[in-house]
């Protein structure tokens, strides 16, 4: 083989088979150490025996049950955290258990597999046939991708390469939650404690003759439609990338280039909004639109009360351009005491009505502290028309009350006049009726005498 890539790490195997199928030809055609060991145990103890793999790798779970090429040799996979939880549930302190030597032969140098360069150490100690290869190891997903990109370009040859997606090897696998564990210390301790002596599995010799450790790796890349250049350009244009220089290829979306991201959008695997520079620019432009179109007066001042933002409504209200205003201080326009209060106390003032008589304005103001800029934002809602309407309404009410009062006064005067006339006619009527009564009751003489 021109190059040999180790196939111990299931994540590396998936990465190559799916994303770099042109490198499948370099994958060592053997099963992983986990599967090999599982096969040996099943051969020695019978296919009915249950084999459990304990390790720090989540990808091993998928390899054990989802890969039909090696299915059936590992019955369960648990990581160290799950083991600790299990022991805790059963109230088992493993440090109090008796020490028992394992039954299997001493793995010797193979115990170095979990650390970076461990597989290389085992290969060198076991087989001198690899001497013609230049040997090195790569760990960490970004480094793996960089290596595979380089190999795809034909830049690597005559190499035996140990590859692992976890930085430092399996000792810092994805299921290791102990951040305090130093992979450097573990690596040094293991290399000091373990002699680099080959493991000769003479006890398994007869069993191994019946076991195939071969594995065929294949192209598993998705057979997906590739969009045309026109479609890619249209997608890029939607995120503001109309020119080649607009393609930053920053990788913030998770794709190595803007074009790859556009292809992923076409395939329904990504969204336009995953482009961080585009969303930032959009958010910034939206902020500018809000500032420029808002009917409210918007001001931002710094700790010195110097104006940092001055929108178009403020320009109209205070008769100053934005450029002029940003060279001025707030107290040159209005009383700044409320702004200073908010700046010092970080306590917002909301819905306060203020008369800006110099500017013929009545406003309702909201003033808040902005921590990110250590400044104060003021939003003035012009309520001059509403206030004028309230004054007009009040004036109409007063005039209406005055008219009503005049009507009432006039009615009272008329009532008094009517009452006077009624009094006079009532007196005359009384005299007349009295005389009529006496005339009827008494004769004329009696009346005359009276």
Task: Describe this entry's structure for a reader.
With 450 residues, the protein is of the alpha/beta class. It has 4 domains: 3-209, no CATH class; 229-281, no CATH class; 296-382, PAS domain (Beta-Lactamase, 2-Layer Sandwich), CATH 3.30.450.20; 398-449. It is built from 16 helices and 10 strands. The protein has helices at residues 10-19, 33-45, 59-66, 80-89, 118-126, 141-152, 183-193, 205-209, 229-238, 258-266, 276-293, 312-318, 322-325, 337-345, 384-441, 444-449, and strands spanning 3-5, 52-55, 76-79, 134-139, 159-164, 297-301, 307-310, 349-356, 361-370, 375-382. The strands form 3 sheets. The protein has a 5-stranded antiparallel β-sheet with strand order 7-6-10-9-8. Helix 9 crosses helix 10.
How can the largest sheet be summarized?
A: 5 strands, antiparallel
The share of residues in helices is 40-55%
Whole-angstrom Rg: 47 Å
Span of the ends, CA to CA: 162 Å
How many DSSP helices?
16
Assembly state (oligomeric): single chain
- What pattern of helices and strands is seen along the backbone? EHHEHEHHEHEHHHHHEEHHHEEEHH
Provide the spatial order of strands within the biggest beta sheet: 7-6-10-9-8
General shape: elongated
Tally of discrete structural domains = 4
Average pLDDT for all residues: 85
Low-confidence stretches: none
β-sheet strand percentage: 5-15%
Number of strands: 10
- Estimated structural class: alpha/beta
């Amino acid at each position: 083989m021109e190059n040999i890539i180790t196939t111990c790490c299931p994540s590396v195997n998936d990465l190559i088979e799916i994303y770099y199928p042109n490198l499948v030809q370099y994958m060592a055609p053997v099963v992983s150490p986990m599967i090999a060991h599982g096969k040996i145990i099943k051969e020695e103890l019978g296919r009915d025996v249950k084999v459990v793999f304990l390790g720090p790798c989540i990808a091993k779970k998928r390899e054990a049950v989802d890969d039909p090429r090696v299915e059936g040799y590992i019955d369960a996979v648990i990581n160290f955290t799950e083991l600790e939880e299990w022991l805790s549930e059963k109230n088992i302190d493993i440090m109090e258990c008796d020490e028992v030597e394992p039954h299997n032969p001493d793995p010797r140098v193979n115990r170095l597999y979990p650390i970076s360069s461990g597989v290389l150490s085992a290969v060198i100690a076991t087989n001198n046939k690899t001497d013609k290869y230049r040997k090195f190891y790569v760990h960490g997903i970004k480094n793996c991708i960089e290596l595979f990109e380089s190999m795809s370009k034909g830049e690597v040859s005559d190499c035996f390469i140990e590859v692992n997606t976890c930085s430092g090897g399996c000792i810092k696998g994805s299921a290791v939650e102990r951040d305090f564990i130093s992979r450097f210390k573990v690596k040094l301790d293991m290399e000091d404690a373990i002699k680099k002596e080959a493991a000769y599995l003479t006890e398994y010799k007869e069993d191994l003759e019946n076991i195939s450790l071969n594995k065929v790796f294949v192209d598993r890349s998705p057979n997906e439609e590739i969009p045309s250049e026109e479609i890619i350009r249209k997608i890029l244009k939607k995120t503001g990338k109309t020119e080649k220089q607009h393609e930053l290829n920053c990788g913030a979306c998770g794709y190595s280039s803007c074009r790859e991201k556009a292809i992923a959008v076409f395939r329904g695997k990504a969204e336009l909004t995953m482009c961080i520079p585009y969303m930032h620019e959009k958010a910034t432009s939206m902020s500018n639109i809000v500032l420029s179109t808002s009917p409210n007066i918007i001001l931002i001042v710094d700790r010195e009360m110097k104006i940092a933002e001055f929108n178009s409504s403020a320009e109209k209200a205070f008769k100053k351009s934005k450029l002029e205003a940003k060279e001025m201080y707030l107290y040159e326009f209005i009383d700044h005491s409320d702004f200073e209060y908010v700046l010092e106390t970080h306590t917002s003032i909301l819905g306060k009505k203020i008369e800006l008589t110099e500017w013929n304005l009545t406003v309702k103001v909201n003033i808040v502290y902005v921590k990110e800029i250590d400044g104060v934002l003021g939003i003035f809602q012009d309520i001059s028309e509403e206030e004028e309407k309230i004054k007009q309404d009040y004036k109409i009410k007063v005039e209406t009350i005055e008219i009503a009062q005049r009507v009432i006064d006039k009615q009272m005067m008329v009532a008094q006049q009517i009452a006077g006339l009624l009094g006079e006619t009532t007196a005359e009527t009384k005299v007349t009726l009295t005389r009529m009564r006496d005339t009827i009751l008494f004769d004329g003489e009696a009346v005359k005498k009276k």
